[in-house]
């Protein structure tokens, strides 16, 4: 790369590294705190300083976490995986199919569908949650799995991305060739287009997974039965008790650590996938 | 671009025959699931909220018959817009956006330019570290920072120049949380956009004697302006619907009221006061406000890039 040897004070390597270090500390220190705090018992938590390690108590905290209220944390973890895992998988497939259809097939209402999808990207989720709740009340599905799961499948931004990917990655000539060979449109989609769209699908899947995992308002509004809670809602409920009952502190913190670790690992492992996916999505 | 241009021409000569029928069922199978979801979970709920926002529940007679829905035209909207608590919540998110948006996007842009411009080892690692907070759910981010702000537990209470849980301090505290979550995500988006800036343009700038800072400000930044504006739209919409962070913080301090942001106001009117008409009206005001804001930003971006 270009190395201009203009050594003005601000462009010097030292200043660049200082800024990056500052940003990295800001980003990582709260996570370090989460880890050190998850290893402390209630007493050490309030008496030792923030980043200092107290007596190593992680195993005890984990035991408490998994036995509190009859092991409900495991239910929450399973629910989160189900909402986010199944929701992202199914949602990404639905989005990709629709984005591909808008990009590469001609059908009546195609422009309208895309226009409404774009409008859907801009509708704030918190403005939607209450109307969804009221509708679910009418349908008598409040406080069920489906009341949370079905709305989370809808991902207009995923369709927008899928359309962009399909326009860039699936050449029309290839589709024409498949058609001339006598393949039906659906078969062409599955055997020709889908493999080409794979990086795009993975990106949509990953971001929809994170979106569902992070979604808080919808479960908060829809669910009252703790057995159906995702991890975030369960931890929130516990955290609202900490000022009265300090023994919830280690539960909340250890639970938070367990909820964060899988996602952080997924992002580290899948780095190449989401980096390239973000690139395609942002440049469009 | 070339792919697009070709697609226009090659779509023209379409052999007639049985393929026509297939063309009609295939889009249905591929596009219908999403179209149905969009209708069922976005369009119908909005329509239903619109309908509800025109009614209010009133006890009729002596109250023996139970509450009855009464059509009140725009009275709910008038009530929401005239409510000082709602206006305060708008001021709160307005102030929050005024600080958070330039701070977060500015920091993300500077970091992206640094990563792109400077000769760095461990570039991947730096960017990954700054990106990681994005993987932390909003509730958990809220919890971590609430603890960090708490006196006696977190170190920040003693270090920060403001009282992070005091009445005037919660706004900057929430800015610190939200900036933490979104800075790295936007940095990666800007960085990937920067990598598409043609290297010969940069080479030409260098030959003309432009230093790294000059190149970053007058060449690279204008070239990724569309990306910056997309990030701006999403950040502005996100700011307006601020909900999770203040809600979590409110278990740790009384400085965050139950109607601190418009979204909290909606939640409070629906689930604590059980006034669905008012809550639906407030939801729609929020949706319209974010539509107007994003349209404004879009308009601004197209004018600038011409």
TrEMBL record, chain A:
It is found in: Cell membrane. The keyword Secreted does not apply. Pfam families: BPD_transp_1. It is a multi-pass membrane protein. InterPro entries: MetI-like, MetI-like_sf. GO terms for biological process: transmembrane transport. Belongs to the binding-protein-dependent transport system permease family. GO terms for cellular component: plasma membrane. The chain crosses the membrane at residues 15-35, 81-103, 112-133, 145-166, 248-270. It comes from Actinoalloteichus hoggarensis. This is L-arabinose transport system permease protein AraQ. Keywords: Cell membrane, Membrane, Transmembrane, Transmembrane helix, Transport.
TrEMBL record, chain B:
It is found in: Cell membrane. It is a multi-pass membrane protein. The chain crosses the membrane at residues 28-51, 93-114, 126-149, 169-194, 223-243, 279-298. SUPFAM superfamilies: MetI-like. Keywords: Cell membrane, Membrane, Transmembrane, Transmembrane helix, Transport. Belongs to the binding-protein-dependent transport system permease family. This is Lactose transport system permease protein LacF. It comes from Actinoalloteichus hoggarensis.
């Amino acid at each position: 790369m270009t190395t201009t040897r203009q050594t003005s004070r601000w462009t010097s390597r030292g200043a660049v590294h200082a800024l990056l270090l500052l940003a990295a500390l800001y980003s990582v220190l709260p996570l370090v705190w989460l880890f050190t705090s998850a290893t402390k018992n209630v007493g050490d938590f309030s008496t030792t300083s923030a980043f200092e390690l107290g007596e190593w108590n992680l195993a005890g905290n984990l035991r408490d976490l998994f036995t509190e209220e009859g092991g409900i944390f495991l239910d929450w973890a399973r629910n989160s995986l189900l909402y986010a895992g199944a929701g992202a998988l199914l949602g990404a497939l639905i989005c990709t199919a629709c984005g591909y259809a808008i990009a590469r097939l001609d059908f009546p209402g195609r422009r309208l569908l895309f226009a409404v999808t774009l409008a859907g990207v801009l509708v704030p989720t918190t403005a939607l949650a209450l109307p969804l709740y009221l509708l679910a009340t009418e349908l008598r599905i409040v406080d069920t799995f489906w009341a949370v799961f079905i709305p989370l499948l809808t991902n207009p931004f995923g369709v927008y991305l899928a359309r962009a990917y399909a326009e860039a990655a699936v050449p029309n000539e290839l589709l024409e060739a498949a058609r001339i060979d006598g393949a039906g449109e659906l078969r062409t989609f599955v055997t020709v287009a889908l493999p080409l769209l794979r990086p795009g699908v993975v990106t949509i899947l990953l971001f929809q997974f994170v979106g569902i995992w992070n979604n808080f308002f919808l479960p908060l509004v829809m669910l009252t039965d703790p057995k159906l809670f995702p991890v975030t809602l369960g931890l929130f409920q516990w955290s609202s008790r900490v000022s009265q009952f300090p023994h919830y502190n280690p539960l909340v913190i250890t639970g938070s650590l367990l909820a964060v670790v899988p996602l952080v690992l997924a992002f580290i492992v899948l780095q190449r996938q989401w980096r390239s996916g973000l690139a395609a999505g942002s440049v469009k | 671009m070339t792919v697009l241009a070709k697609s226009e021409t090659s779509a023209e000569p379409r052999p007639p025959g049985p393929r026509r029928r297939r063309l009609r069922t295939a889009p249905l199978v591929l596009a219908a699931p999403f179209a149905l979801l969009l209708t069922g979970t976005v369009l119908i709920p909005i329509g239903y909220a619109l309908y509800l926002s025109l009614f209010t529940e009133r006890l009729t007679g002596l109250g023996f018959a139970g509450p009855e829905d009464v059509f009140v035209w725009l009275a709910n909207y008038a009530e929401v817009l005239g409510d000082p608590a709602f206006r305060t919540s708008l001021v709160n998110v307005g102030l929050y956006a005024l600080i958070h948006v330039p701070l977060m996007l500015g920091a993300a842009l500077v970091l992206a330019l640094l990563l792109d411009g400077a000769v760095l080892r461990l570039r991947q690692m730096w960017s990954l570290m700054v990106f990681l907070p994005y993987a932390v759910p909003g509730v958990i981010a809220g919890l971590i920072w609430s603890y960090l702000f708490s006196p006696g537990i977190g170190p920040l209470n003693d270090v920060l120049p403001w009282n992070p849980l005091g009445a005037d301090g919660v706004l900057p505290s929430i800015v610190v949380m939200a900036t933490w979550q979104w800075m790295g995500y936007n940095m990666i988006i800007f960085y990937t956009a920067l990598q598409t800036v043609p290297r010969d343009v940069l080479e030409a700038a260098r030959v003309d004697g432009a230093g790294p800072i000059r190149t970053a400000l007058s060449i690279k930044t204008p070239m990724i302006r569309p990306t910056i504006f997309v990030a701006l739209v999403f950040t502005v919409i996100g700011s307006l619907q601020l909900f999770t962070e203040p809600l979590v913080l409110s278990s740790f301090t009384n400085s965050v009221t139950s109607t601190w942001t418009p979204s909290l106001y909606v939640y409070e009117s629906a689930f604590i006061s059980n006034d669905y008409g008012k809550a639906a009206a407030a939801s729609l005001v929020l949706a319209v406000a974010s539509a107007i804001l994003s349209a404004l930003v879009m308009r601004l971006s197209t004018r600038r890039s011409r």
